[in-house]
Write a structure and sequence with these properties.
By secondary structure, this protein is mostly helical. It has a single domain (1-139), classed as Up-down Bundle (Rhomboid-like fold). It is 61% helix and 4% strand. Strands 1-2 form a two-stranded antiparallel sheet. The termini are far apart. It comes from Pachyramphus minor.
């Protein structure tokens, strides 16, 4: 059961570790700025478990057609966060290499690019993207908690400790507090 979460910490080589670090900095960082640190931590674990469960469900079916690599690294969770962000985005179109494309197609384009990352599991990344899209479309509404709960969790042990670590940017749980901290 512990492997449902710990697979995000497994990397084969330096290239896959670097790609994972870029995904964490870029996708997870922007996602955290939108939802707050508390919800980000909760959703990181949730996306990790749901992506792993979906992978375990689909792997026997897909492995009959083509060889499937093990899900490793943070990329499936980053794809889940990217799927949520693009699904809930107010933008309709964005620029990708100078071409205007619908925002909802961006994660699928990035999925095709991620296929070429060494030791990256296409099925694992696809499962992460599907989980993120489902959450973004509201199919996983039971996983959401209100901003008031997020604000209350901001004041409990692990998160109060995170606020005190110098150099670490803590994002508050409520939208009003996030806007106030961004304006200062």
């Amino acid at each position: 059961v512990h492997r449902l979460v710990t697979y995000v910490f497994v990397y084969e080589d330096l290239v896959s570790l670097t790609c994972g670090a870029v995904a964490i900095c870029y996708f997870a960082g922007s996602f955290e700025r939108n939802v707050g640190t508390v919800k980000h931590c909760f959703l990181t674990i949730t996306f990790s478990v749901l992506s792993a469960l979906l992978y375990l469900l689909l792997e026997p079916l897909v492995s009959r057609v083509w060889e499937v690599g093990d899900a490793k690294g943070f990329l499936p969770v980053a794809f889940a966060m990217l799927g949520v962000s693009t699904t809930r985005s107010r933008m309709k179109r964005t620029l990708v290499f100078g071409c205007r494309v619908p925002v909802v197609l961006v994660p699928w384009f990035v999925l095709c690019v991620a296929w070429f990352i060494p030791h990256s599991s296409l099925l694992g990344n696809l499962c992460g993207l599907l989980v993120g899209e489902a959450y973004g479309l509201g199919y996983c509404f039971c996983l959401d908690f209100s901003e008031s709960v997020g604000s209350k969790l901001d004041r409990v042990f692990p998160f109060t400790l995170l606020k005190r670590i110098p150099g670490l940017k803590y994002i508050p749980g409520s939208l009003a507090e996030r806007r106030a901290s961004n304006s200062t």
